[in-house]
Fold each of these.
Amino acid sequence: MDLINDLLLGFQHILTPTIILFAVLGCALGMLTGVLPGFGPPAATALLLPLAFVLEPTASIVMIAAIYYGSMYGGTITSVLLNIPGEVSSVATGIDGYQMTRNGQAGKALSIAAVGSFVGGMLAVVGMVFASQLAELAVNLTYIDIFGLSFLALMLVIGLAGRSLIKGLISAVLGLLIGTVGLDHFTGTPRFTFGSVELTGGISYVAVIMGIFGLAEILRNLTAKQPVDFSSNIGSLRLSRRDLRDSVGSMGRGTVIGFFFGLVPGSPAAASAFTSYAVEKRVSKTPERFGRGAIQGVAGPETANNALGISNFIPLLTLGIPSSSTMAILLGALLINGLQPGPLLFTQNPEIAWGLIASLVLSNVILLVMALPLVRLWVSVLRVPTGILYPVVLGVMTIGAFAINNSVFDVGIMWVAGLVGFVFHKFEIPLAPLALTLVLGPMLESNLRRALSLNADLGATLLANPIALSAFVLIGVIFAVKAVTAVRRRVRRSGGDQGGGIPTEQASSKADTE
Amino acid sequence: MKKKNALYAAAIALVSLLAGCAAGGGGADGGGETEGPDAAGYPADCPSIELLVGFSAGGATDLAFRVLADELSTELGKDVRVINAPGGGGSIMINQMLSAPADGCTLGHSTIPSHLAYLYPEVDAGYTKEDFAFAGAFAVGPQVLTVAADSPHQSLDDLVESAGADGLTAAADSPNGGDAIINAQFADALGSKITQVIVDGSAEKVTAVLGGQVDFQNGALGGVLPSIESGQLRALAIWSPERSDALPDVPTAREQGIDVVAETKYALMMPADVPEDVRQVLEETLATITEKQSFQDDLANLGIPTQFQTGEEYSTTWDEMAETVQAIDFDSLN
């Protein structure tokens, strides 16, 4: 089969000691930069871009790809251990991952994350090899389609809201509000910038995420009556067969979700992780375990992340279109070396194109091999007294926030966000909705306005686009189901009591876990 | 327990060191090799020179300036580093440059027409052209009008004829940047409307055209060349005064009866207060660099032909472009 031959060609090209070394280096660097909050693959790959001038093309491309890939896992490490997401996309993993750490299952969390990453990545590579048609599908998505799909993802906010819908909505709306700050994308008019030049660039969501999760967590622990100390509760590092069995479904679903999100141009990685988390919560037979350390809540998003990482390469390889800033840098590395990204790469330099794909398989393996033994090392970070750990983490976060845009302003944003996160914790307002809407809000607005600028008649546009239409129909169904359930609940409640007017404990608590 | 503490301390030190190195690099080394004779003798005492670029790493503009930074490092015998400061249509980078000391150690990228945004009344830029001193221009980026390969339009005429009452739709990456400037003039010349759909960056412009969301897009030659050569996009016109060697079969807009000319100029600038001898050395170095075959080849890979202009000449071009831009009514683009 031609494809097999091509893949073999690719492997042949990359399985040289130098290239393997670069791949290992890339994965290690990627993991490390993923761990450093705020300092993500775009920054890391940008730092290494000059190497593309010097190294031979395959080496620099393999290395950049490996860094990108390794950082997806790296971000999970601090997210799970300290609730300080190293990457925006690891926020979703941290929701249950951190709880697992609190339950003394940090090792399991990190291990399943590594396994999930591997599975997601490998399956995605298989998907990618049969990929070009898929990329074309994604390109044909209209703006209203993307709006519909994003809105559907927004409905997941309901799933993430927890016990109080009102509090969840407060969080979500604040996220939408923060997302509006900056220059209006369409008219260029400043919104909520209050005359500040820095705010015209918008409020960096990486800084906000680091603040509301990472910084707030540190502040919480510092002001807690009982300081958090997990050093005595490291627990088992091994995954039991049961853990694996429980996670298989999540990994499968996560792969599909991540893979498709990666194809949609402009979709942020965080959206796929959150979607996977929310889907897992919905299909789970024990949804109340989510938020308390459910292993599926780690397996799903992690798998989705890595599947997305791989499928992000597809538009670049098949159409020459970069779907994220790291892909843009990879594109740059190709251009600097006089290589044409896109289908031409396959015809003119097949060894590099297939070498890249083969290197993704290689990176997957390297990552699994590196990550599993290192779990022990990472988990032992928990033994470091918080008096030493927190200042170091704070220092790293400050540098990370600065490194986003070479601006101290972002560090300020992180601190303000940290205080907001701290306050939210006090009032038991969930933060996950904020993280989701912060990321989805701009996408929703842009795509709706693009669709409207092409055709002001929204109704007609919806009717002409089946995907968007189905998305909204689905949203309608979700609302209807919720409404019916709420009405039923009320009926049951008033029917259940014989005139005392006191709702039964059981009925209300059962309803709250939806 | 002492051993463990030592181990932790070492681990912490390592992490901090790495973090410090990583961020201390600040952005990237623009090729940092200080090879080459210390010939030019840079008349400013700088440990290294920072070249601020107002776009994200990996984009066409960023890459062009990285190539430049590499050459500057060689010629000046100093480490020239590219630092990305994206956002605000370039205003964030410009403000950063202007707030740095005017000692010749901080330079900035200059591209027009994108930097002309300060002329618009709703933009509260806080700077004017007088705040800048120009070392000169080194390249000119052609803009190409492209449609999807499966589009029925084979020429600009076909596109124009298909316009109809609603006019045409185009993907653009900002409401008043380079694309909008071309589209506004195009709409004027056509006498019909062009509706812009604003997307995030050049990749999404191509996606919009490929997916059939819009009729056409204007893109930098370097960016669309791969897609044209792989048969996904078709170039209908080039907005330069003359045809490009990279696309010899694509007629200019002028040739096809649309008298609109637009190109992006790439230049090097610094705060106006930087001493004149620094500016002159940079100007001379730019002249030398643009003659080098290696530089021309590297930029050719990005689809950007080299073209040298002195600071004075660039300034004149700036004024000319500013005049054109100020006469444009962007509201017509909806």
Amino acid sequence: MIAEAGLAALWLAAGLAAFQFFLMILALRSDVEVTRAMRSIAVVQGTLTLVAFGMLLLVFARSDMSVELVFANSNSAKPFIYKVAGTWGNHEGSMLMWVTILAVAGAFVALFSRRTGERTLIAGLGSQALLALGFYAFLLIASNPFARLSPAPPDGQGLNPLLQDPGLAFHPPTLYLGYVGLSVAFSLAVGALLTGEVDARLARAMRPWVLGAWILLTLGITAGSYWAYYELGWGGYWFWDPVENASLMPWLAATALLHSINVLAARGALKAWTMMLAVIAFSMSMVGTFLVRSGILTSVHAFAIDPERGTFLLALLSIYVGAAFILFAVRGATLKEGAPFELVSRESGLVVNNLILSVILGIVFLGTLYPLFVEAVSGEKLSVGAPYFNAVAGPLALVLAVLVGIGPLLSWRRERRPVLKQLRIPALIAATALAITIILAPGIGILPRLGLVVAAFLAAAGILPLVGRNPLRAPLATWGMVVAHFGIAVALAGMAANAAFTSERLAIAKTGETLSVGPWLVQLQDVTPTAGKNWTAIEAQLRASRGSGAVTLKPQTRYFSDPPTETNEAAIRTFWNGQLYTVVGKSDSSGGWQLRLWWKPFVTLIWLGGALIALGGALAMLGRLLRMRRRQGASVDWRRKSYA
Amino acid sequence: MKPKNQRLVLVSAALVAVLAAVLLAMWGLRDRAAYFYTPADIAAGKAAQGQAIRLGGMVEKGSIHREPDGVTIRFLVTDGKAATPVVYRGIVPDLFREGSGAVVEGRLQNGIFVAETILAKHDERYMPPELGNLAAEHKAGKTLEK
């Protein structure tokens, strides 16, 4: 009954979404008063999707094998947390989660949005309903998560062991919240283009959504990167895998949008530009979903290879993106450009930021889709990987990182202050960093060296907006910007240090034998069998020492039975100046074991930087929310006074 | 700047960005995309020496041979028509076995494929599409032979 209830809730939600869209058309063609009706419908629709998702959670938690999806992706021997997380560790469940977030986001807009004009709100809610409707159709027609199996099999087939990891429980929901949070920016932009009300009010209504989505995307990407780093056992943090790119592209677009939206909110300028970015940002989310969910890619993320679903998703994507771009082409030109600004100004700086981010986005987009394109045209198969992305996007990212240090020093409209003078100290620090790397590490590559230098420059220049004023008095939004920009410097330093200074050792070792990697001596002490709830493993005991003090690491190779799979569980030990990363492989006939050891100086800075970037976003968000609240409080006071 | 000029500048800037992205991507893709080849393609001399490519097929039964250093292996990748010798230094991935499918990334050097990465299929559900087609062809070929 539970599955049927979920399915019924989904059908009802789809019906309501259709009605909601119909009301929008009605309202825009005549002056019927529908705002309250639309608000309630959106809330009910969101609640119904929550019910449907809750039902799916329940059948997974109870291991109800009569539901086909549970049978195919779960197993009663799995730990409970992975049974629950298994709900979204598969195609149908993750699409249900996607549409649930979409509808709930719509409900939140309906409940809390008081800032946009009424007609724009109606048009935005209608657009959100239309978006949801397509994904309801996709679920109900091509990917029903509640389909039953008769007779019910005794036990399920299990979940890919790579996905049985605490990271799995949080990584996809975080990214999905980010992806789908951008849908609100998309819908509000579509709404504003329909009504022509593109102004600072709209920007302020969009901003919390974009900021929130961007924070979650940042966290999701950072966590995903760390997950790949420790779970895959390859010692890398970013592989330029199409699925990683699928999450990077919306992030790049959202980063650009986040900056241009500030221009629109503060100065009323960059109207068409910001609307365009809002459309692109969510389009990239949909492209990402299409890439990951259509099964045209090879990856742990690609759950099912089913051409029908891929075609369905592609059709949805083309309709939505196409319609939004046509709308933009028709209405974008009619928008009046806002307040003018000089060539050297904060606005121009943000335009340059947007341009570089857009070029990087284009490069990632083209590189990711090129193999699909070539195969469709000529049937030739190829892959595009790190050599392309690093060589083409890397230098641009460095240029951008330099400008990140300069842009925030410019003032709105027209620059009058001597900015270059302020940059003397950061420039000096960068020069010192260059000299130090040349003396201490003459042999490192040009990109890593520049990365270290730029990171030093940005770390110093990034905090300048707080210098010369009382830092405690500075607005939280400014603090947020400074922390986020500093985070970029930290992450960049981590990437450059990892590229420049990593030592690697791959060898076979017998028990008692010692290998050296970087400053470390690593002794293989023993290899023993061990077991967990649904796996068995061999575990190596490694004793690592440098100078005084020693630590023990225990990497494993795990064997899962349902489905039969092996995984390498790396053992990683973090120190203040880097990580020791160890993997155990196979044994050879003479009783030796393959060991792969890495010493990665300062590699943790990469994820620390990511976390700082997200923290900066959170500070800015908090600042905006507090300010909003204060303003609302003030207006209430004012109203009270006027009544009295 | 006047608003009208401002819009003109912004539109041209956007166009320049799009153009720059396309040009940079084309330049980068020209020699950095790794093409996928089968052993038969390599036997026919289709793949250039020294260029990053991908090779896909089945690991031939009885062909895995381990070097004395314990971490270098040699094996043959076959598609039923031809076989390419591969050398790889590293820990082979989960489920890399004789008789099962694998895609290797690397370069051809003097007729030997020097692999940098081995992508073996994790299980039936995560088979690379290239291999999926190959396996299908393989089966089709066998049925024809019968």
